[in-house]
Structure formats: structure tokens, C-alpha cells
Amino acid sequence: MKKHFFILFTLFCCCSTFQAQRFYVAPNGSDDNPGTRERPVASLTAVRDLVRAMRTQQTLLDTVFIEVSPGEYFMDKPLLLTPTDAGTRQSPVVFRGQPNASTIFYGGLETGRFEVVNPSLWRVFIPEVARYGLNFEQLYINGKRRFRAQTPNRGEFNYLKRIEETALHSQGDRSISFASQKLSLHQEGLQIINDMEPGELDNALIVLYHDWNNTRKKISHTNSRDTSIFLTGRGMPQYSRFNRETRYIIENYRKALDAPGEWFLQSDGYLLYIPLPGETPENTRCMFPVNERFILVEGADDKHVEFIRFENLSFQVAAYKTPVSGNNANQAAAAIEATIQLDNAKNIDFLNCEIAHTGLHAIWFRKDCSYSRIEHCHLFDLGGGGVKIGDQRPGMDLKDTTGLTKHITVHNNIIHHGGYVFPCAVGVIIFHGSDNEITHNEIADFRYTGISVGWIWGYAHSPSKRNKIEFNHIHHLGWGELCDMGGVYTLGASEGTTVNNNVIHHIYSFKYGGWGLYTDEGSYNVRMENNLVYACKNAGFHQHYGKENIIRNNIFAYNLLSQLQFTRPEEHLSLIFTNNIIYFNEGLLYMSMGDDKWTKAIVNIDNNCYWDERTKNPKFHGNLMLTDWQKLGHDKHSILADPLFVNPQQFDFHFKNTSVVRKINFKPFDYSKAGVYGSQEWVLKAQLSSELEKAYDRIVDRQKANR
Fold this sequence. Notes:
The protein is mainly beta. The protein folds into 4 domains: about 1-75 and about 85-95, no CATH class; about 110-150 and about 255-290; about 160-255, Elongation Factor Tu (Ef-tu), domain 3 (Beta Barrel), CATH 2.40.30; about 450-705. Helices cover about 10% and strands about 40% of the residues. The longest helix is centred in the last third of the chain and has 16 residues, at about 690-705. It is globular, with a radius of gyration of 27 Å.
């Protein structure tokens, strides 16, 4: 027996490895090397192949570490991981850079040094453009995005004058599969048409802002006689058509190059750039993107990619190239893919990583992903949104949860500065997905919603259940560019979903919208507690229509047009609104979209504290005073009283004492815990610059003056 045991043990050791295996990647390595410390490889793809080969030769029982040395790497193609590359629970694969070191993978190339044409114009020759017809639509200088030449300049918009659509092919389901749109422009549009050279028309792009959508189209034809341009492609959607409030910019023609920070790429290979103050050719590093993707994880329905972790790595400079057909209106830029994208994957983690300077969304846990996380990562300067979770499951039975993405954790991340290519993109969005946790993130400087949960309009079955949206700091969204947006947006039946302990502020839409907490169509059984919401345009809370949502123990303060808003009464309990503090000095208290919706709704509103700095007797709805409002069955135990905040004018909503709010059973919560936590460096990195906040305030002030 002892002899047989010894033989079996020896055989097991020959085909199994108990020790951690290590491979090495370095900027000065070669993909022909064996990946040792002394002879490292140069790319992630090469080291992936080494791990593949090793797994075919032996069973691994400990971690495989891929040690990536500090430095800069160019990725000429994305890292593709399939089930062949999967780790195991006993032997995960860890791609890791060194802590506190700079390990950057670029999806783009660096230009040569600019030459000065004149003090307000530089140029640099890019051989790949002249020789191979390379074209790119994004550019990054000194680690910051620069924008293609456009008219009007960034932050300004022109309006459409008249819209005519000619349907050329219809599918019979009210959708027009092919149409021509004639957009008549105001007088300033004539100058744009006249400024475009004939050869530039093929590359000029119009970006239209309408409702909550963006449409990006190549211009098919112009007519200077009646100041019009023509687009072709899919017909305008019925729910979001172009109209006289649709704004537009036109980019990528030579005469639009007229503002510092703008650039224009000529077909002869010269990149033209107007420098910003303080920039010199000597201190300017210019990079243009070549590849769209960094990592693709592609499992199979019956075999997932599992147990892989990325640590301390930065992925920067990625492209997006507009297709010939352009981009049709698409809520939340839902159809646009991501620079890191995962399908059929489990236990895939991203820890302390960066994703920056992209044309697409940053990362998407798409089809059948589970038990994965992105934590302590910095996602910034994004063409789209930050994190996408779940797929849209077209044509699938939504009651069948097979392949549903679930248990994704997005925790303690900084997600800043997005929507630069797709303004309607969202900071973090969950389509169809359950049991996900979005916690302690900093989400700021997007043009649309901060966090969006659910993808079913109305009361049909939704698989999006038990999602946790808690302790996030969400702010400076909208920039007055789109409508129908919020800090946290929910959609469809969401039983068990919580939106708690978030701080939401400075949400400003173009027209309607700009809400802090927004329960949209069919939101059902969502609980929103212990949130601080202030400085939102239309209201701190808005329910379009929904069922049995609980809005409890929140602070709503200094929202602009109204504090609370409601749209559609229904024949069931729509919401419970109790134990909240509402503090304001402008706008309405309760506002309806249309006629007297609040008074017709079935709602439970009680035990709230209201304080209007302008008067001791605020009007609750229309001309109703508190006693009139109470006769309708609302706020029977609520009070009109100053809640005794420390310094509300400076957005300090701590309490001097709690004697007043105890009367409504309000339970104070520590809103300072919202947002990221950790080292001082990490917390400071999450703060927006004062210059950006001032720019936001200028836009708000200008639009308020024009109301």
C-alpha cells in the first residue's frame, strides 16, 4: 500500500503544480521570449499564450501571476480572453502592475513634435494618414481630450428652423426604415454651408440634441438657396422627433477651426491645432487613437471565462469612428459598445485600474456575467459612459433568467467626465440585471443621468430586481444639454431595489427633467431612504408613474423649479412619501406635469417637515395652504418648521440640534459617508476642479436668465 501511494503521489506531482507561477511583461521585452524575469515578453497577448500553453501541460493548483513592469505599452489589438484562458478557484490568473507605479497600455500612437505655422496655429505631419488613409475622431494632448473643430464652438448650439421628413421605406410597424430629412437652418446656418468646401461635405458630421437623445449623422447634401441640409437613414423615432427646440453643432470642416483647443485633420496628413494658452511645442505631447478596444472577454454559453483579475493597470487612448450610416437616436447610448467588454464571464475583477481617454463606454459586463467587480478604479474622459451592466435581451423571454447578468459590484470608483462623443450616455447603467451593487462611487460631469436601473417601460415583467444603489456621490450632471434625466433613474418593476444614502446635487437639464431621484415608467417597489438631494433643476424627486415606491427619511433642499413632482395618477398606491425634510427658497413645493395630478393620485404623504425661507405659510399645491392640503388627506401629521440646519446656504445640512425633526420621526444620517473613501490622495482625486464647477454655474445662470 505504501509503495502504491508513493507512485500515485509522484505521478500527481509531475502533472500538477502547487507553487504560484509567474510570468513577466516589460516594455523592453520581446514576444519571442519565454516570459521569465530575465527575458520578459512585451505584450499581454503573448503572455496569455504562455499561460495557455502551460495549462495544457499541467494542472495548476495555485495563482498564476502575470507581473507587468512599469512603463508604456502600445496595444495594436485588444487582449482576447476565451474559455481556454480561464483560471480556476484554486488557480486564478492575475494580471498586475506594481502598486503606486505607472503601467499604461495605450490604444493609440504619439505624433511627432508640432511645428508653429503662426502663433495661433500649429501643425504636425502624421504619415499613417497620408499613406494609408488613417482617420481618427478623437485627440488627446497632455493627457486631456481636445475637440474637433465645430460650429458653434463647444458649449454653444444652433437651433433648427423647420424639419421635413420624407419616408422612403416603411416596415409597417410605424417605424420608417429609410427616410430623408430636410433640416432648414436659421441664418447662421447659411454661413456654415458656405464655409464648407465641396470635398469636406463627406466628412462633416452634424450632432443633434433632441429630448433625451443625440443623433449623429453625416451630411448627405446641402442647399444654400434655402439654407438647408439633408440627412438620410432611419426615420426619426416617434417618441423623440426633431423639432424647433432641437439644437445642433456641425463638426469637422476646415473653417470651423477657430478656437483654442480645437483641431482638424487634413487628408494630406497634416493635423492642424490651435494651442491653448501656455502650451508650447516643447511641452506638448499629442496622441491619436488607433484601436477601439483594450480587453474582450468572450466566453461561451456552456463554458465561461472565470477567475481572472486585473490590478494596478491603466488603459488609455481608445478610438471611436462614426459609421457611414451615423448614429441614430438611442437612449443612454445603449447600443454603443465598450473598450473593455465581457460576455459569459464569472469572477472577473478589476482592482485599482484606470480606463481613460476613450471613444466608447469604459467597461461593460454584458451578457451572462456574474460575481465580478470593479473596485477602486478611475474611469475618466470617456466618449460614452462609465460602467454598463447586463444586456437588453432582445427577443428573449424576460421571465427566463438564464444568462442574466447578476452580482456585479461597482464599488469605490471615481467615474468622471463622460459623454463627450455620446452625450446621452450614463455614468453607471443596469439594463436587465439583478442583485448588483453600485456603492460608494463618485459620479460627476456627465451630460445625462448618473445611475440608471432597469430597461422595461411600464408594468411588464422586468428581471431587474434587488439592485443596491447606495452611498454614491452624484453631481454636476446635465450641463443644460438634454432633457428627462436624473441623478438616479429607475425604470420598470424593481422589487427589492434600494436607493439609499446617496448625495445628489447640481442636476440641470435643457428643458424638462433635471431631477434628483426619478422613478420613471412603471417603477415598482423601489425604496429610497436617507438621500440628500439639492440644487436640481425641476425637482428633487419626480415620479412619472409607478407603484408602491417608498420615499422616506430624505432631505430635499434648494431645488429650483419645484421640490416634488408627479405626472400620472393611477388606480393603485403610487408612492409613500414620509418622514422627509423639504427646505427651499424658490419655485413650487408640489408640482404636477399637466393638471392637478397630485390631488388625484393615490399616495401616502405624511410626517414631513416643510420650510420655505420666503414665508411661514407656503402653498402646497396651486393655492392650497397646509390646512387645505390636509383636508385632502395629505400631510396630516406634517409640520411647517425650520429643521435647524447648520448652514444650508453653504449646503451644510447637518443639524444644530434635532429637536424639530424628531417631531416627524426623522432619523439623522451621516451623508458625509457618500462617495469614495480611502487614502487622502484618492479622496482628493474625486473632487472636481473649481474651474469646472464655475463653468457649470455659468451655464446654469445663463439658462436661468433665459427662462
